[in-house]
Protein 1
Amino acid sequence: MAGELYRKPIMFAVVATVVILIGTIVTMFYPMFTEGMHPKLENLKPYTALQLAGKDIYMREGCNNCHTQTVRPLKTEVMRYGEYSKAGEFAFDRPFLWGSKRTGPDLARIGGKYPDAWHYQHFEYPQAFFAQSNMPKYGWLKDRKLDPADIESHMKVNGFPYTAEDIGALAAKSELDALVAYMQVIGTAVKKSAPPVTAVAPEEKNPLEGDEKAHKRGEEVYKQNCEACHGDDGKGGIGPSLTDASWLNIAGDISDGRIYEIIANGTPSGMPPYANQLDKDKIWSLVSYIRHIQHKDK
Amino acid sequence: MRDYQYDHQTVKGFIVSSIFWGVVGIVVGLWISIQLWKPELNIPPFFTYGRLRVVHTNGLAFGLGIGAIFGISYYIMMRLVKRPLLFPKLARFHLYLFNAAIALAALSLFAGMNQSLEYAELEWPLDIGVVILWVIFAINIFGTIIKRKEEQMYISLWYIIATVIAVAVLYIVNNLAVPAGLTKSYSVFAGVNSANVQWWYGHNAVGFVFTTPILAMFYYFLPKSTGLPIYSHRLSIIAFWSLVFAYLWTGAHHLVYTPLPDWIQTLGIVFTLFLIAPSWGSVVNGYYTVGADWNKMQTNYLTKFFIVGITFYGLQTVQGPTQAIRVVSQLIHYTDWVPGHVHMGTMGWVTMTTAASIYYIIPKIYNTDIYSIKVANTHFWLVLIGQLMFSITMWITGIQQGALWKATNADGSLKYTFMEGLAKNYPYWQLRTVAGVIFTVGMLFFIYNIYMTIRKGKALAALRA
């Protein structure tokens, strides 16, 4: 009699346990013993001592409450952040740090996207880069020293290889150094996706030339996307000055088409590509703005 | 007789403690809601958003939620088995240990000791404490039920038993870790596998903390306060078994479009859709119960708490499965839609039902009536308005965020930078803080009412003595 079950608490508990365990076994326990759950990319390297210290700080400060670390295989998401996340990228993350909310942007491809200097300054004062950012300041981490003995024990628990020099070198580092080192390694086991194709001929002229308002529009775009690195009026900062001769005359006078290409595709020396973020009109308006400040300077 | 009195002290202790931790959790919630639009309110190192958010979630899920569940489950069980707790002194120790654990948990989270597993942030020494707490709870629940004086186990007891079993399995497995010192550990699970274990846990924390014990309260206190028997015993049997069966399959809907193997995602989505049925089994059972006499909505002040509460449970369990579907997930996942969803469940269903249960219990314990039905009604309307405003603003801004992230220009380039999308959240985030304040004021009315009822009860007891 099924009705009996509700008079027998022990029997009831046993049946309830079995019922609860079925889904548990199929979706959680069984997969653990399949290869698909333990993938590892060939070129994925264990974290160095400094990087692991940075990851520990990332966990301590709860960065994963606002930042995800997984790019979904969706067109616009790949355009915004880079290659979609691969299963084999996370073998050394105990636990995973994919997060569940993007109050800030995804960080799965942040490694190598900006130079170190960008990160140091951004952690110090995020609003200097993005006036409307709501990220807390983390400059205080630079006043806190790392504890090499602690980090060594963490390396051991994770089974990551290290040398005595690696550990010794930590004593001179701050928590901010570690966090930046971690930022720069996130997602680097996957090759960057090829820069988007820009169909602009180097000799092409700016179609907005003569448009008096173009440089004004360009200035708006510049303030949002470029100013943080290239400074007020292109005077330079983390990135090079956009008004001095050494840049404008790299190989003779730089052409409009060449400036367009640099903005669209980025450079190997640390400038990220913007072809996915800015449409043609915005990029050309930036070219107009750069020409404008260049002439203003003279 | 003495024993009964003793047990009530423990029940009351848990209720008062849970309200205290609830206040802490809600205040921190207001604080972080302001931090989102006013980053100057981040005060490093202890009070940045990244640390405070976990104090908010843990404070409310474990402090308010689990605390109330311990106390109210003890109360319900004693009534249903018609005898006092088998181990009253152990229950008293349970109460003290609970408060010590929650206090230490809050301090450790302020200090940044964090496993980075959502709703399982506490580091390993506290995990052990939580397991001990749970074992004590289980001993008293099972012991008392086995030694019961009433043969038939009522629905609420089924839900309490399922809660005790499931939470034990979930909590222990997801927190398995290798210690690296007293305040740090590394999960035994890595990468994709750890994601799968975490969300099997994470979603079932919702299932077996925010659902089954709350349903136990609902099935007990709704008939008690209305005097109407549960509409269908058969429906409650079907709903119970299909709910506890299906819940464990659904965690992967949190990982749609991640590198988790596709078949686990799909299975998770399918079972999530199935879960509408058992959830609505309880919703329908509740509606038809009061359907025998809808006048109760007016004549008994608690009825509306339960009926509106179960309505939000019903909405939650339709919205949730909708979100699990891939095409919806890709728009709203990672946006503010999700906190909007969660808070409908926690503020609308869990807090509403728990508060009504406490309104029922406290006067019973003190052998008196509630201090003021008017204050209770004010509490009801304020938390209802606050919660609706919270959820609706977050749904709007969530859909907007998702749409801005996806928007492209004619040439295929992205239309908005991330920052342009973020800036558009500000007015909604500010409105959400207003909503939170309204909800908090409502809760203050609740606390005042409970406090005054206790005072009244004590005064009466003094008179009688």
Note: Chain B has a mean pLDDT of 96.
Protein 2
Amino acid sequence: MTDAGLTAAMVSDAPAAARKRVVVAGRLLLAVLLVLGWELGARTLGSVFFAAPLDVAARIVTLARSGQLAADVASTLRVSALGFAIACVAGVLLPFLLRRSPRVSTAVEPYIMASMGIPKYALAPWLILWFGIGDLPKLVVVTLMVFYIIFITTTAGIRAVDQRLIAMARVAGAGETAIAREIIWKSLLPFFFTGLKVALPRAVSATIVGEFLVATEGVGHYIEYSRQVADTVGVFAGIVIAIVLVLAINAVVNVIERRALAWRPVEREMEL
Amino acid sequence: MGEAPLLEIRGLGKRFPARHGREPSPWVIQGLSFSVHPGEFLTIVGPSGAGKSTLLNMIAQIDTVSEGEIVFDGETMASRDARALRPGCGRRIGYVTQDDNLLPWRTTFDNVLFPIEVQGRLDDKTRAHAEMLVRAVGLAGFERYYPHELSGGMRKRAALIRTLAYDPPVILMDEPFAAVDAQTRTQLQADLLRLWNLGRKTIIFVTHDITEAIALGDRALVLSRQPTRIAAEHAIPIPRPRNVQDIFALEGFAAVYQRIRSDIQ
């Protein structure tokens, strides 16, 4: 009996494992192709237009050894994370508050949507005028970038909540706080995580663009500085660092998401 | 039953608000009256679309009434205005809906504990009571499963004991066993009667199945077609405890069945 069960389990797992190997092999192959294409680009266009992958790798190692990498990454992360956190809190709280009053909600919504149309980067010179050249103007841009994404996904999540579950909870004696926390928040989590994943790379990008304009350190500052001295390798190294940063943050979000949404019957291989 | 009724429905009427630019909608329910005594198991039979869910929604105070009044435990409920509604009437009316409405992100046991938890009454005693109910309906071993991992019958059981666990004196049931197969339904009915015997709560059980109405109830009300009111009332003369499995064979079943069927138009 146990043997039969064990064999059955192995048989059913075997195709899954094989599929996983194929996926990993495919990923590696794509990576090799990308690096080869990159190398090809560098050789045909020349090192001023296109930095070679090995040179970029060597530069990143140099930056890491000198400690500049850590300082720049820390600076970029500090602004992105802070802006991200402020935007998340505001982007989640505001829809919850608006939910309590449909009339205020209808009145305010067009203004929120209109303010979303403001091109944030166009505001940069004024933000510098208003807030000086410290972290503050960058923080404002990052916060604005992330806020709308979280606000819209959270609002959509609140609208999608199954009203029957709320009625059930009310009958069972749940107060408004319990309903918000136990029903609405839990059921909008998939929306929230989708918002997080869209917003995270933007938070990092926004910080980097902000650092082009005002900064004395940070990944963006390094890219902009390299560009000014026509250091193509430096620009490419900065871009690679930014990519790795986004991937690392995304991996962390994935872990949190998997734990928070462990109840969901999802196709694991569909995970992004 | 010389006692005062626990719940009284007087001339109840419901019509849904007119949509913009249209005729006001017809009465779904009109002039519906009945009363329920403490500890009574009342069944209500009606054809599909007779406004059975609407009726229970109004009693549970999650929907407003358009006409008439609901008196619960001597107190007239303010139920015209949606903002004045008190769903569940201060935890005294439990409601087992047609859909199980289990929270998909909570395990079976956490679903059962949900009402106790949000009422701030979770302690060793209430938890032990919930555990007893889980065992009583055969869900032991499935406490840590999520609803989507359970069968339809198990989800119904979980929804049922979620309401029993916080012990409301009145429980409304809206065709809770309609969506399961006949075998499971009989089992669930037997479970329900057994649990009811433990506490003798007041139950209003709505169904479209005449056999179910007879098997479970002390008294069966028959609903008319729309606008719905009470068309007939039948006492169920079958003594308890009843064997739900063989309910057809019991004395008195056939006669009541015939009478109820002729009342349903």
Note: Chain A touches chain B at residues 162, 164-165, 167-175, 178, 182-183, 186-187, 189, 261, 263-265 (CB under 8 Å).
